[in-house]
Design a protein that fits this description.
By secondary structure, the chain is mostly helical. 59% of the residues lie in helices and 0% in strands. The longest helix is centred in the middle third of the chain and has 13 residues. The N and C termini lie far apart (35 Å).
Length: 66
């Protein structure tokens, strides 16, 4: 996917794109992939930055129960 396509997937919101990129390059491809990648990280017990968690909450990401 081109950078232009990725940015389009994020509604040209560069801040959200950058935040998603903190998780992984694949998470930056679209909001749905971001949510899936963050969920996988949380299931693995990894702690993510406040920025990532705020964006995850905006997209209604589920917090796994321990």
């Amino acid at each position: 996917q081109s950078l232009e396509q990725k940015l389009e997937n994020w509604g040209y919101n560069k801040n959200d794109f950058r935040t998603a990129f903190e998780v992984s390059e694949y998470a930056s491809t679209s909001p749905s992939e971001f949510v899936a990648e963050v969920f996988a990280e949380l299931m693995s017990g990894n702690k993510l930055s406040d920025n990532v968690m705020e964006l995850y909450a905006r997209y209604k990401g589920v917090i796994p129960k321990p």
